[in-house]
Amino acid sequence: MIDILVDEEYGFRPNISTAIASYKLINEILVAMNNTVSVGCIFCDLEKACNYINHRILLDKLECYGIVWKFLLL
H/E element holding 71? Predict the structure, then answer.
């Protein structure tokens, strides 16, 4: 099987929850602050991001990963 998720992808795999992502983020911020490093963050709400995806391109990419049309039509 092709591993298409990067290590920084949380919430889609067992034992790698968004709670762990939150913990890691807070920990990195606290470490930086303890080392007197400036910290800045940008947060984006991607809830409706799928509404703007070109579905033809998405289906083509899924096919490249071995997900063929007969499975997509189920």
Answer: helix 69-72
Phi, psi of 45 (to 5 degrees): -90, 110
Record the tokens describing residue 31, joined without a space. 């470490």
- Determine the Cα–Cα distance for residues 17 and 12; give it in Å rounded to an integer: 7
With beta carbons less than 8 A apart as the criterion, state whether 63 and 69 touch. Answer: yes
Structure tokens at 4: 């298409």
User: Could you read off the pLDDT of 1-53 as tens digits, one per residue?
Assistant: 567 777 777 777 778 888 888 999 999 999 999 999 999 888 877 777 777 88
3-state SS, residue 48? coil
